Amino acid sequence: MEEPGFMEYLSVTCWRAKFMEAFFSHVLRGTIDVSSDRRLCDQRFSPLLHSSRHVRQLTICNMLQGATELVAEPNRRVLETLASCLHTLKFRHLLFSDVAAQQSLRQLLHQLIHHGAVSQVSLYSWPVPESALFILILTMSAGFWQPGPANLPCRLCGEASRGRAPSRDEGSLLLGSRRPRRDAAERCAAALMATRRKSEVKQMPRAAPATRVTRRSTQESLAAGGTDSKRELHPPATSQEASGTKRPSSAPAATSSASASSSTSSSKRAPANSAPQPKPLKRFKRAAGKKGARTRQGSGAESEDLYDFVFIVAGEKEDGEEMEIGEVACGALDGSDPSCLGLPTLEASQRFRSISTLELFTVPLSTEAALTLCHLLSSWVSLESLTLSYNGLGSNIFRLLDSLRALSGQVGCRLRALHLSDLFSPLPILELTRAIVRALPLLRVLSIRVDHPSQRDNPAVPGNAGSPSHIIGDEEIPENCLEQLEMGFPRGAQPAPLLCSVLKASGSLQQLSLDSATFASPQDFGLVLQTLKEYNLALKRLSFHDMNLADCQTEVLFLLQNLTLQEITFSFCRLFEKRPAQFLPEMVAAMKGNSTLKGLRLPGNRLGNAGLLALADVFSEDSSSSLCQLDISSNCIKPDGLLEFAKRLERWGRGAFGHLRLFQNWLDQDAVTAREAIRRLRATCHVVSDSWDSSQAFADYVSTM
Question: ∠ at Cα 509 (505, 510), nearest 5°?
Answer without folding.
Answer: 170
